Amino acid sequence: MEKILVLGGSGFVGTHVCEKLVRKQVHVTVPTRRLAHARNLLIYPFLTPLELDVHDEAALTRAVAGHDAVVNLIAILHGDQAAFDKVHVALPQKLARACIAGGVKRLVHISALGADALQAQSAPSMYLRSKSQGEAVLMQAAIGAGAGLTARAGFDLTILRPSVMFGAEDKFLNLFARLQKHLPIMPLANADARFQPVWVEDVANAVVKCLERGGIASPDNAPHVLELCGPDVFTLKELVQLSAQLSGVRQGRGRPVMALPRWLGRLQARLMELAPGGPLMSRDNLDSMQRDNVASGKLPGLQSLGITPSALLPIAQDYLTQNQPTQGLLAIRQRSH
Length: 337
Ligand SMILES: NC(=O)c1ccc[n+]([C@@H]2O[C@H](COP(=O)([O-])OP(=O)(O)OC[C@H]3O[C@@H](n4cnc5c(N)ncnc54)[C@H](OP(=O)(O)O)[C@@H]3O)[C@@H](O)[C@H]2O)c1
Description:
This protein is of the alpha/beta class. It has helices at residues 12-23, 57-64, 81-102, 126-148, 173-182, 200-213, 236-247, 262-274, 283-288, 312-322, 328-336, and strands spanning 3-7, 27-32, 47-51, 69-72, 106-110, 156-162, 165-166, 186-188, 194-195, 198-199, 224-228, 234-235, 257-259.
């Protein structure tokens, strides 16, 4: 493992992945839509940011060539059908072709818990359907390449399906804490939806382990699929209350949570979609929550890679109390924004 291309390396998970790779003295290339988005990564001697339109297949193919492995972390949370198709389905398809053309041996693709390549159409939201389809096109490419071309042309595919991630820069517990500092009550749609949050560091470690040794051995050479979850399950309401407790809103008592009926939750999400900038919540996000965000128990998890999933409470307490990372890449990143 000498040269790795990390698509989405400038993002929340990508920053952690890049940090771990450069510490191992791996040469990392990070394509980005704007070099400014990757300025937090510039301090690393082994890392090369590359301004690139990843949706331009010819440019992507040129960028992929010469790397030992590729990590794909590019995704969107909000958008219309066309946007989800472009980022979650068409891009993986182009990436698979680029890997085969460039002789890249290993691809680690980050999907999402609740996606399922075999049942894409039954997924409840555009996000999960497109994530599922993205997995499916990669699996077809990986298996097809192995069968139809020489063994040299195939690539080892690992699909990681993380639950919602917590960490100093998350847009999840931090957001709940921030909202409760300003709102008198917390109107909450899908308050009973269940989640099994996973620490971003555990996910980044899993990516690195998969790059080093592939996913886990599978006798039929099928792509490796892992579900990455933390040790504990929480309802959305419990997570909102925890964020207030840990960040000290109203001396830890937080705001009263008002569980919204379905119709009112959708109306709230519709109004948020109309707000300028990216919405805090969309109707498609609510659709995703129709499926519990917890491990199915049918697929290997972090333990199969030798990683013990970290509990949320002590880690979230650390960053929600301070709300400021004080050292490392994340601190530099936060200061630069
Ligand atoms: N965060 C979570 O809780 C969570 C939970 C489950 C699954 N996941 C999955 O984990 C992966 C990483 O998530 P993340 O939270 O790190 O994402 P993120 O912070 O939003 O980063 C994604 C990166 O993708 C690039 N990007 C975004 N939209 C793009 C577009 N339209 N075209 C090209 N590039 C685009 C951006 O890079 P530039 O701006 O540099 O171009 C961005 O840094 C994703 O696959 C996500 O679905 C995340």
